[in-house]
Amino acid sequence: MPKNSDICILETHSETEYFPYRSPAKFGGRVVNDVTLLNVSVRVRTRDGREAVGQGSMSMGNIWAWPSQTLSTDQTLQAMTAFGHKVTAHGKRPEEFGHPLELIYDFAKEYQRLADETTQEQNAEPMVRLAQLVAASPFEAAVFDAYGRVLGANSYNLLSAEYCNRDLSYYLGAEFAGEYLDRYVLAEPKDRMPLYHLVGALDPLDASDVEKPLNDGLPEHLAEWIPYNGLTHLKIKLNGDDIDWDVNRVVRIDRIAEEVQAGRNVTHWVYSADFNEKCGNVEYVLEFLRRIGEQAPRAVDRLQYIEQPTNRNLRAFPENKMHKAAQIKPVVIDEALIDFDSLLYSREMGYSGVALKACKGHAEALLMGAAAQKYGMFLCVQDLTCPGASFLHSATLSARIPGVSAIEGNGRQYCPGANRAWEPLYPGMFRITDGTLDTSVLAEQGLGFHWPQA
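-> structure tokens emitted (454 positions)
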């Protein structure tokens, strides 16, 4: 029977917002100096006539999502932004009713056609799937946000058979028959969660690395960031093609962390290592771990997981199996994760964990989070240097998915200007002193938070 809670999408709107970085961020051999946000709003109506507006936002992240060898970064950004606007415009479908998960899943089958239209209009190369997911994600977020608001509830609490018309077998196969996402999502957000701080490849580690102080009131280097935010979780960006640099970088970070944490009487902290798919093979990762173990054995003990060491195109490099590394530390799939098939194939390749991202779409994150739990995989949530609404959205995933232990939040480091309107609303999420975030506040209607008044 049709559900009165089913919605249709009556109106859509999208616009962009630009913010410069306070300092550059480097990953995967590329440097980022600014962020373009795509902000989307949608108006929805239930079958019984109730209406509400929802909002979503995401960094276009073109340098990460679409590292083209032929197009400039300006061209990929322009194409992704145009595609995001096109998705939003075509998402207006007043004749189609359903749960947001169903509406998005069905609509996503049209992304490739819309992407092809976009790139033909701009005379660009075909847009890769990851770029499509990123550019479409603010629209998806807005739909889920509107759904919660029109029903007067948090969207994470509207994922059961009472609201969904299809069980998970429709999306994930027969082994999920009779199951719904409420089984894989917490009824309430976790109260507090540690903050993962990014140590970028260009970031100064101590005062000796600071060539030109920013003098903007924020820390200038890692040794200042740790006590400033009370950090206990550090995500380390590595080169992946320079073993000496990577080893020396981790050893030095560990030494600085030990000195600073000793002064704070902190005895437990952790790292993650992100090679951004630059390693040539698993042997590089094994050699990296071996040499770290020789020079700084406690750093290996502190390493929680390793993120996407080799090329994101797993099927093009079937020899890049991760089984040996995964026996030592969890190895998580990130850039390569674009659908359920890629998750299944990553398991065959030896990956033992999954990195969820709000920027790949809310529906995708929920479904991949369910599959990862079903298969007993390590779980984490990564952001895309997300500020403002996009950061809070990413944080809601971290706070609602069982097994996720920390929240990555890099916007405060690189583009704090984009957070200023949000800090007074959610100080516990943006003003960090004890290394943790107050995720208990992310329990409002919709995606769990509200936007600043215009």
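The chain has a mean pLDDT of 97.
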